[in-house]
Amino acid sequence: MDNQKLRVIILFGGQSGEHEVSLQSAKSVLQAIDRDRYDIQTIGISKKGQWYWGVNPENLSLESAVAVTLVHNPVDPRFISLDGTPLPNSGRFDVVFPVLHGPQGEDGTIQGLFEMANSAYVGSGVLGSALGMDKDRMKAVFKEAGLPIANYSTFLRSKWQNSPASCWEAIERKLGYPCFVKPANLGSSVGINKAHNRNELIEALNIASRYDRKMIVEEHINGREIEVSVLGNDYPRASLPGEILPAKEFYDYEAKYHDTGSRLVIPVKLEDSVIKALQEHAVTAFRAVEAAGLSRVDFFLTPDNKIIVNEINTMPGFTQISMYPKLWEASGLAYSALIDRLITLAMERYQEKFTLKE
Questions:
Q1: Does a structural domain hold residue 127?
Q2: Which residues of 90-120 are buried (b: 16+ CB within 10 A; e: fewer)?
């Protein structure tokens, strides 16, 4: 290995409902990353949670893969094979790029794993990842930060199962129809449904409760779907905004990844004052959850240009045609340069630890 190269592990797959999305993101990263600057290794996580060294996201074949585990040694973090097979660089690495979406990937769990092992990794830390995943706690933090959010209600699955009438009655009183029902801890619009009446609301809550123990119900906002990418650590900056024109009634999983009728308008033409406000709100949301590295902030923009912050995604879809990198491309930062910047931000954040008093 060229000793000047930074040793990067691209980590992908995972146990969440966004496993396939992660494979798409990792494929794009591997195609674009500068191999003259980085020594690249890959680890794929199966849907059962097993970790395998050297697999390809285009063909996640585990038959001949080497099962590995992370050694939690803060002085010498590394991977070892479970069957004794030697690994490149003896399993040692400089930084992990976890191209993982959803629970156990961007919710703080795997970030805690790398923190315990004293390892550098791309993206937000434990707190930022956890807040960015839990839509209920996220909105509470946004509200505390003074950001404009839609009305919402939160219910535990146990409450829904034991007293369903009290749930739908509370929703009808506070939010009315139509409304959106979501699992509180999931991404890529998995398990999300729009309810126009009580029967649809009941079905939507039943579906959401299959994915999470907590469901969030949000009022319907008549507005355009606008997104802004944020990049940085202590001094984040926001990209130009883009707009989603979904092929379906709303931008669900099918519309995002399978329905070619959906369109992304990048960048979207808006008044300069609206663009500035969107960018300022995006940075405020990023700082409110203590995000790091990258995030995408999603908004609704009403016909009278009122801005509503919907959510933040701390590890957004990262294919070359995904909104996050496309917005940065429109803002003057190419995909491969964006990958470089994220790795640099990860190393800066990691090295900052050593300036702290023990």
A1: no
A2: ebebbbbbbbbbbbbbbbbebbebbeebebb
Say whether both 87 and 212 belong to one domain.
no
**Same-domain status, 11 and 77:** yes
What confidence tens digit (pLDDT) does each residue in 307-330 have?
999 999 999 999 988 999 999 999
Query: What are the φ and ψ backbone dihedral angles of 4, each rounded to 5 degrees?
Result: -80, -15
The yes-or-no verdict on residue 1 having pLDDT over 50 is no
Residues 230 and 343 occupy one common structural domain: yes
Number of structural domains found in the chain: 3
Whole-Å CA distances, 126 to 30, 130, 134: 25, 6, 12
Q: CA 150 from chain center: how many Å? A: 21
Judge contact between 95 and 346, C-beta under 8 A. Answer: yes
What is the average per-residue pLDDT within 84-100?
96
The DSSP symbol for 250 reads S
Largest pairwise CA distance in the chain:
65
Amino acid at 233: N
Q: Do residues 107 and 173 both lie within one domain?
A: no
Give the model confidence (pLDDT) of 246-276 as tens digits: 876 554 555 454 445 678 999 999 999 999 9
Q: Which residues lie below 8 Å from residue 133, measured CB to CB, with a gap of 6+?
A: 102, 103, 106, 107, 108, 185, 187, 314
State the CB neighbour count (10 A cutoff) for residue 145.
15
In this structure, the answer to whether residues 317 and 346 fall within a common structural domain is yes
User: Domain holding 174: CATH number?
Assistant: 3.30.1490.20
For 99-151, strand residue ranges (E) read 120-121
Give the Cα separation of 60 and 283 in Å (integer).
Answer: 36
| pTM strictly above 0.85 | yes
Residues 169, 83, single domain; the answer is no
The pLDDT, as a whole number, for residue 185 is 87
Strands 214-219 and 263-265: unpaired
Q: Which of 207, 215, 211, 223 is nearest to 149 (CA)?
A: 223
Domain that holds residue 47: 6-121
